[in-house]
Amino acid sequence: MADIEKLRRNLEDNGFATSYFETAEEAARYLDGKLDGKTIGIGGSMTAQQMGLDKLLPSHNTVHWHWLGGTAQDAAKAQVYISSVNGLAETGEIVNIDGTGNRVVGTICGHEALYLLVGVNKIAPDYDQALWRARNIAAPKNAQRLKRKTPCAEKGDRCYNCNSPERICRALTVLWKKPNGIPYAEVILINQELGL
Questions:
Q1: In CA terms, which of 8, 59, 88, 111 is 20 to 30 Å from 127?
Q2: Using CA atoms, how far apart are residues 125 and 3, in angstroms rounded to an integer?
């Protein structure tokens, strides 16, 4: 069981605002109420989709999400960026792995605000275990979901650090502190298992 209070303290010490919700529905309502009349970019995020943000946010914002027919380039220029994470350490480090780089870049710079969505299944006790989770749980599951021909997708048990042309883990970011290039960043913690 994750120590949510410790995690929030460490994230806040690292410059991130935090919020905590029992359900994805409550978190989605919170974001929907906070964001109005904005351009919003969303990275490839099963968590955002499971929260129903694809239905809520476009009614009163301009949403750029490649899953809704938008482009990664438009998402990169949005005022607000929303992403889930692959691993979050109770010690405060945020880990993401990406294939094209759009998602990891979106969490570093160029936006007025960043919102990171985290289900409790993404939380690990420390950085090493958060990184392990991103590489050995999230990446293989995403490769399977995308039907990639990689050892991790075929076997589904771990990262093989492969040389497959269909490899999806090509870029890694670790946010140790809130990036200077983003004025506001918030980690939204949700007491449900969400995403991969």
A1: 111
A2: 8
